[in-house]
């Protein structure tokens, strides 16, 4: 691609129909794309540790995709909403995890997702810019040589054929095969990258990440399936349960769509499809991307949703300790030896939590 790019640069810098300014612009666009790739490749998504826990704790649990009081088995830290453990590159919990990109060999999350979007945008611009320059070159050449007014002789049939777009394309491709190939490649890649960028613009505008979007697809599919089964059961006059809250909330890794793991009943009214609580509106969603919450001045004082959950769990643990102590004091009046049951109860009241909470 680089060789093709500079080959076309050489072509239009010597063309009388194309301004020499495009020679400079072409180099600038190429360098901008390379710089965008370098930044996207070296940027860090953020790392959740015991020390940085509060900095990233600014999203509430939706109790649908992300459950409270779930501990990462690798880091032994509470899983913050919208986070995920990255096993490929950083081997840590990434805040607002989006995806792992093979093009840049980097994981994207809360603090570097913006650089990935800029990387995509730069390459979309480069592809369509290269397509435009090639088109201008071919158009000016066809116009200057008046190829559309000519007639072409077919050596095989001996016929004289009037010029048309198909004939002109064959003529240009035979003499400018490298440049035509470059134009076709950049045009196709430009469309593909535009669709990919459009997808990310769409999910970002809806307050979703790539990781969450796939989960929402499973959730919506499950609700629609259950709603259809419910309507069918109502029409058939079957005895059904109005609504059930039995879902697989054991972890926040995946949302199961298997009826046998979600519901005990065969037919149930699932209710309306839940809303995405992380969708805060178009403007706020994009502000969260380009101005990450964890990098703002009030990062440590904002939110604290996980902190509240841990504090509640700690309070419950303290209550269990107090109840256990009361029981032990009552039993000590009648016996001088501690009960094994009380000893076991007192050893199970510890609560795992980050060091800074």
From TrEMBL:
The chain crosses the membrane at residues 21-40, 115-138, 180-202. The DHHC domain is required for palmitoyltransferase activity. PANTHER family: PALMITOYLTRANSFERASE, ZINC FINGER DHHC DOMAIN CONTAINING PROTEIN. Signal peptide: none annotated. Its EC number is 2.3.1.225. PROSITE patterns: DHHC. It is a multi-pass membrane protein. It catalyses: L-cysteinyl-[protein] + hexadecanoyl-CoA = S-hexadecanoyl-L-cysteinyl-[protein] + CoA. It is found in: Membrane. One of its GO terms (molecular function) is protein-cysteine S-palmitoyltransferase activity. Keywords: Acyltransferase, Membrane, Transferase, Transmembrane, Transmembrane helix. This is Palmitoyltransferase. Belongs to the DHHC palmitoyltransferase family. Residues 68-216 form the Palmitoyltransferase DHHC domain. GO terms for cellular component: endoplasmic reticulum; Golgi apparatus; membrane. Residues 242-262, 312-351 have a biased composition (Polar residues). Residues 234-270, 304-357 are annotated as: Disordered. One of its GO terms (biological process) is protein targeting to membrane.
